Structure formats: C-alpha cells, structure tokens
Amino acid sequence: MTTAVLALQGAFIEHERRLADLGERTIELRCAEDLAQPFDRLVLPGGESTVQGKLLGELGMLAPLRERIEAGMPVLGTCAGLILLARRIEGDGGWLQTLPVTVRRNAYGRQLGSFHATGTFGAWDDVPFTFIRAPFIVEADNAVDVLARVRGDIAGVRFGNQIGVAFHPELDPDDRIHQLFLSL
Amino acid sequence: MSETQQTATEQTPAERAKLNRELAQMLKGGVIMDVTTPEQARIAEEAGAAAVMALERIPADIRAAGGVSRMSDPKMIRGIQEAVSIPVMAKCRIGHFVEAQVLQAIDIDYIDESEVLSPADDVYHIDKTKFAVPFVCGARNLGEALRRIAEGASMIRTKGEPGTGDVVQAVSHMRLINSEIRAVASLREDELFERAKQLEVPVDLVRYVHDNGKLPVVNFAAGGVATPADAALMMQLGAEGVFVGSGIFKSGNPAKRARAIVGAVTNFRDAKVIAELSEDLGEAMVGINKDEIELLMAERGK
C-alpha cells in the first residue's frame, strides 16, 4: 500500500519517516500532476493551514483530493491538516471541508500557549499529545466519533475513514495513531 | 471515551525547548517575510507566508538610514499580531536580553537575535535557555550555528548579507555549513573531541551532527533572497525554508512576488513551475553587492 503525504509546506518529512518505520511506502504531493500516481491513503501534515490551503487551491488540488476523501480514501490530518479537513473554521471559510466539525485556529494562543500532555485516545491510555499553536474542535456533528479531549476540548476525532487530531503524533515516539490510520 | 485527566501543567524547560524546536519544524518548506505594517502583514499572509517578521524598517532601509537600529515599537508589533493569524516574529539586538524580555512579554512567537540590528553587546549573546519563547539566530558556519544552539537557539538561519538583494553570501554560508556538517559526519568517534575544541562548542552537539548528519534544529536561508529562483536555489542547496527581507516590499509588485517565492519554495526542484512563477514579476529590488557596501552585517555576532 502507498500513502501520499501532502508536501506543500510544514512537517511532512516527520510523517514520511514514521510511515516508513511502519513499512509503508510513501509519495509526496507537491502539485496536481503528482495526483496521477497511484496511492491508497493520504496524510495532511502540520504546518501553516493558510499556506497549505492557499497552495492547494492555486495548484488545483482541492477538488480532486476532496472527491477522493469523500469516496472513502483513508486520511489522517494533524494540526493544520485537521484545519484543512474541517467543514467549518471559526471566522474563516474552509478548505477540503470533508470532516463535519468546527475548528478554532490558534485555540491555545501563540507559541507560549504550546504544550505537551499525555492522555486518553479512544481506548488507549498514556498517549502523548504535542500541541503547537494548535487548534481545537469547538463542535462536532453527531455522526463524528470523539476520541480525545484535552482540557475539556475535543482534540481528536474519527468520521468514517477520516482521522483528525489537533496535536502531532508524528513528533512523539508513540506510533499507535499511525498504526490505526494504516489499518483503515 | 474518558476525559483526559492530566491537563497541561507548567512545562519543564526541556519540554519547552522541544516545543520551540518543533514550531520551527512546522515552518519548514515555508517563507518568512519581513513586514513593517499590518497592511504588509496581511499582504504577506494572503500570499502564503508561513510567518512574518515584524520590524520598523526592512534591512535595505536600515542600511540607507545608518545610525543605531533597535527593537521595534511593541505597539507596532502588536498591530501586526492582531492583523494576521500566522506566527509573528520580531528582532532584538544581539546580546540585548531586555529587548528579548520585552518581546516575550508581548507574547511574540519567535525572537530573531539579529545581526541586522546594531549589536548591544560585542562579546555575549543572549542566554536563550532562560527564555520560554523560541529564538532564531544567524550563522555563517557550523561553529557559529552550534554556539547559538548551545546558547538555546531553536532555529538557525544563514546570515547572508541582509538588505542587499544579493544572494551570494547566503549561498556561501549555506554551502559552508552543509560541507562542515558532512565533514563532521565523516569523522571517527575519537576525532569529535578535537573538532569540538576547534569549533568552540560542546562535544554533545558535535556528536549529534556526527550521528545525524544535520543540525539538531531547523536551518533556513536568509539574507539577500530576492527572486523565486533565489529561493529555489537556497532550497536545492539544503535550506529547509527561506526568510525574505527587503526582497518583497522593495520590489515592484510585492503581492505577486511574494506568491511566486512561496510557490518556488514548495516546488523548488521543478524548473518549469519556477519559470512560470518568474514571469512578469515587475522590477526586483535594485540590489547592491557586498563589495559596494561599507557595513557587513554578517560580521556581527560570532
């Protein structure tokens, strides 16, 4: 199986390394032509969502990716990737809009509000959470499965084959979330 | 599911240092643009800047004005923080830890302890390990880069020669740092102590470079980048992202040039894309070369 990692901007190499450690083949998506290569899954990495979103639009990648996600291709969005997936962004439009949640950007403030914690993710305990100028989910539709809450706010969800997390599993040495993603 | 019990408590200095390096990782593949007004910050964000550097005068104007250049007015920085949602950086003078304290107090995302401003201390850099906010510092070679990292910098950029529109210094700094990294990686373990002594840096940092073939923090290009091709050149030479100072708002069509540089950094190996992006950008910043200027900012802070 092959996972495509959106490589327009941000921490995509970290995801590629993690996936390679788990035996997955990866390719990078940098322009519309890259979408012609065969791939089975998609990772939307951390970075700046405005940069990635604008480039997705300018490069003509938004509609084809949205179509594939809506057709059931497994996708993992971390931090900025969650924002790209969100149907609604507070005070802003949206990008792919395939995940029926509302996100708040920079929800914990600027860099001084960034933090590390551990907690529960679905059935798992002691999952490390690294939040960097992170968003959180202020509202999730009923059909969305809430997997993690931190400080009372939703930090991780699953909706069909879409996993969206506000933190960075690619930065911590726990690979359970990537394994879950690869099992979809 | 159960509610997470453990909420974020006070972060330890080690956790804070990790988070600060990780913010730089999130900026990779991006362009950080110098802006002097909220209006420019909005243009930069709209064009796809990964962060903005708030400063009163861009380096080209600092050169033209001469005199002592200092940290910007906190009110002006706040105006820029309010205008955009991307990270906002600001510069303090080398060694001026009170300017750094002020920038931390206004909740800046990253401090650039920068040779572009007049140095406040001709011996000591700021002890950046004492701060919760991250720092980026300039470097011309591996020794400077590792000394800044030892002092607590979470991100490195080449010094280049700011405000010139001439990329030659950034190129030579990036080539030198990367060739010195390759040389360290090729050493025997028992040769690392002597190399650390020569570089005037802790042996642990040299060992990291030896084992990983890279700096322990993200390394961007800065100083003299003026065109999409300049930005792609720096990326192909191994930069993980690009700072553009005077190059954007000293040019004929800032919004278009900014967008083109962002696009060139994303597709830095695709010459066709860079060709398209380079069309009709209007005039690039005029530019002066390093032999025509009297002040070499890169000589500041070793």
Question: What's a quick, concise take on this entry?
Answer:
The complex is a heterodimer of chains A (184) and B (302). Chain A is built from five helices and twelve strands.
Plain-language structure description:
- The complex is a heterodimer of chains A (184) and B (302).
- Chain A has 184 residues and is of the alpha/beta class.
- Chain A has a single domain (2-183), classed as Class I glutamine amidotransferase (GATase) domain (Rossmann fold).
- Chain A contains 5 helices and 12 strands.
- Chain A has helices at residues 12-21, 49-58, 62-70, 80-85, 176-183, and strands spanning 2-6, 25-29, 41-44, 75-78, 86-89, 99-104, 115-121, 124-131, 136-140, 145-150, 153-159, 162-165.
- Chain A has a 7-stranded mixed β-sheet.
- The radius of gyration of chain A is 15 Å and the shape is globular.
- With 302 residues, chain B is of the alpha/beta class.
- In chain B, 43% of the residues lie in helices and 12% in strands.
- Chain B is built from 13 helices and 8 strands.
- Chain B has helices at 13-27, 38-47, 59-65, 74-83, 97-105, 142-150, 168-185, 192-199, 203-212, 228-236, 246-249, 254-266, 271-277; strands at residues 31-35, 51-54, 88-93, 110-114, 135-139, 155-158, 218-220, 242-244.
- Chain B has an 8-stranded parallel β-sheet with strand order 7-6-5-4-3-2-1-8, sandwiched between helices.
- The longest helix of chain B has 18 residues, at 168-185.
- Chain B starts with 12 loop residues before the first helix and ends in a 25-residue tail after the last helix.
- The relative contact order of chain B is 0.15.
- Mean pLDDT of chain B is 93; it is low at 1-9.
- At the A-B interface, helix 1, helix 2, strand 7 and strand 10 of A face helix 1 and helix 12 of B.
What letter string, H or E per element, gives the SSE order of chain B? HEHEHHEHEEHEHHHEHEHHH
Distance between the termini of chain B: 53 Å
Structural class of chain B: alpha/beta
Question: On the 0-100 scale, what is the average pLDDT of chain A?
Answer: 97
Assembly context of the chains: heterodimer
Number of helices of chain B: 13
Report the portion of residues of chain B in β strands. Answer: 5-15%
CATH class of chain A: Alpha Beta
DSSP, total strands of chain A: 12
Unreliable residue runs of chain A: none
What is the typical, i.e. mean, pLDDT of chain B? 93
- What form of chain A results from the Cα inertia axes? globular
Strand content of chain A: 35-45%
Reading the helices and strands of chain A in chain order gives EHEEHHEHEEEEEEEEH
The proportion of residues forming helix of chain B, as a percent range, comes to: 40-55%
How much helical structure, as a percent, in the residues of chain A?
Answer: 10-25%
- How many β-strands of chain B, per DSSP? 8
Gap between N and C termini of chain A: 11 Å
Shape of chain B: globular
